[in-house]
Amino acid sequence: MSRIIIADDHLIVAQGIAGLLKAEHQVLAIAKDGEELVELVKQHDPELVITDISMPGMTGIAAVAALKRIKKDLRVICLTMHDEQEYAEGAIAAGALGYVLKHEATDDLVDAVNSVLAGKQYLSKSVQVEDSAPTLSARQLSVLRLLAQGKSAKQVADALFISPRTVEFHKYSIMKLIEAKSSAELIQYALSRGLV
């Protein structure tokens, strides 16, 4: 029986997911946003997290990046209504193994949970992710998210306990990876993938 935490700002949705899984899995807790999800993972040490993407405060994708820094082997499924390729790529880049659309969840979710727990990627049938999408490290995602929030290199450095020079290095590396030619394009990339 696997230990799972669910995050969704709509409690009725989270409870529905819990009901769907409780026969075979142990649902440890339900979080209403990204910040609470991070705290609950620290407290309960689950094997799997199922998170919505659009939540108040920290988005689900930003939470995934934060969780992968805390617990590298944590398995994550993003359960969302966003079927745009950019969101799926953002979730996978952040470290999610599964990406399931809410309207396909009753059919897909149990399969997704079993696949992801086995270490395999699972995407809803109607979601396309390009293999060529760049994979950013958890650190790069953290830097990108903070820069996209309008923070200066010094503020990002203070928040992540690294030097401003290291922030600039990460920024340059990210821009090269995603082929962004300006800070504006960098921010647009972060916004289009739900990182902010």
Structural features, described:
- The modification 4-aspartylphosphate is found at residue 52.
- InterPro entries: CheY-like_superfamily (IPR011006), NreC/VraR/RcsB-like_REC (IPR058245), Sig_transdc_resp-reg_C-effctor (IPR016032), Sig_transdc_resp-reg_receiver (IPR001789), Tscrpt_reg_LuxR_C (IPR000792), WalR-like (IPR039420), WH-like_DNA-bd_sf (IPR036388).
- One of its GO terms (molecular function) is DNA binding.
- Residues 129-194 form the HTH luxR-type domain.
- This is Response regulator containing a CheY-like receiver domain and an HTH DNA-binding domain.
- α2 (34-44) packs parallel to α3.
- The chain has 2 domains: 2-123, 3-Layer(aba) Sandwich (Rossmann fold), CATH 3.40.50; 138-192, Orthogonal Bundle (Arc Repressor Mutant, subunit A), CATH 1.10.10.
- α1 links the parallel β1 and β2 (25-31).
- The N and C termini lie far apart (34 Å).
- The protein has a 6-stranded parallel sheet, with helices on both faces.
- It is built from 9 helices and 6 strands.
- It is globular.
- The longest helix has 15 residues, at 164-178.
- The chain has helices at 11-21, 34-44, 60-70, 85-94, 105-117, 138-148, 153-160, 164-178, 183-192; strands at residues 2-7, 25-31, 48-51, 75-80, 98-101, 122-123.
- By secondary structure, it is an alpha/beta fold.
